[in-house]
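Lab meeting, item 3. Inverse folding demo.
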């Protein structure tokens, strides 16, 4: 299985390397409702996922499903407009396949963005969160199965999943841009249903500040391949169990769209300095 994965990753990477702009040093994963960052990229090539061998295809409406190659703030980047989730029926190996491809085409740094439910009572909807650490409650790992040493070690260290140097760059950039940037712990759950009041209490008790259904598998694989990782999240709904109100996806996407310009400016500022 590991040799087959390596072959599929290499095949997909080769399909990208021949395209204009295929010299990225930074890979960017754009989460739910966060595809507009691609508009700030000086685009050289756009590739629909359907044209990439082995690439999954998003089934979530807010994920467009395109790979964008170009420069952002003068830095060569490759951005994924649309990611994949376990709740869509994909395995975590399939979910993280694109991250391995981004590394193969040259990206040494991964910027992951997402939207999340806020459980820290001191934070508000629309604020940004710098992910300092995470908790994996997906009940699975993308590294289960035979290990390919060509990708990384059997037991990768996770003492610093989110690069401290990149975090400091993000905090400095947020200060310059006058953007409030909270710093905390992200917990990943499988979804697709949102959590109950009791579950929010449990997750908060475990030490999590925000909750979502993505990101952690991608970060695990990025660290397996020795990529530096920066994680950023937008709080799109308040998940306070004693004041919990119903929320739907349209409200989440609307909140993401309202806060997205801040996230976009922050990512551009940081990427320009990498």
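The presenter then showed the designed sequence:
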């Amino acid at each position: 299985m590991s040799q087959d994965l390596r072959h599929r990753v290499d095949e997909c990477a080769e399909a990208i390397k021949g395209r204009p702009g295929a010299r990225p040093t930074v890979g960017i994963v754009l989460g739910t409702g966060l595809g507009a960052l691609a508009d700030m990229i000086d685009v050289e090539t756009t590739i629909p996922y359907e044209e990439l061998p082995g690439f999954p295809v998003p089934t979530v409406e807010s994920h467009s499903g395109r790979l964008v190659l170009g420069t952002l703030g003068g830095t060569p980047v490759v951005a994924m407009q649309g990611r994949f989730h376990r709740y869509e029926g994909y395995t975590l190996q399939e979910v993280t396949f694109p991250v391995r491809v981004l590394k193969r085409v040259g990206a040494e740094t991964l910027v992951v963005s997402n939207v999340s439910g806020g459980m820290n009572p001191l934070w508000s909807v629309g604020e940004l969160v710098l992910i300092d650490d995470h908790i994996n409650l997906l009940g699975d790992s993308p590294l289960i199965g035979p290990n390919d040493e060509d990708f990384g070690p059997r037991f990768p260290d996770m003492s610093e999943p989110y690069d401290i140097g990149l975090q400091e760059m993000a905090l400095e950039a947020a200060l310059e841009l006058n953007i409030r940037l909270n710093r905390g712990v992200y917990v990943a759950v499988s979804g697709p249903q949102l959590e109950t009041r009791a579950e929010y209490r449990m997750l908060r008790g475990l030490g999590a500040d925000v909750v979502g259904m993505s990101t952690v598998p991608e970060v695990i694989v990025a660290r397996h391949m020795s990529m530096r990782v920066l994680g950023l999240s937008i709080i799109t709904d308040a998940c306070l169990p004693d004041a919990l109100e119903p929320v739907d996806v349209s409200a989440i996407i609307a909140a993401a769209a309202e806060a997205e310009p801040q996230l976009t400016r922050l990512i551009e500022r940081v990427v320009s300095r990498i």
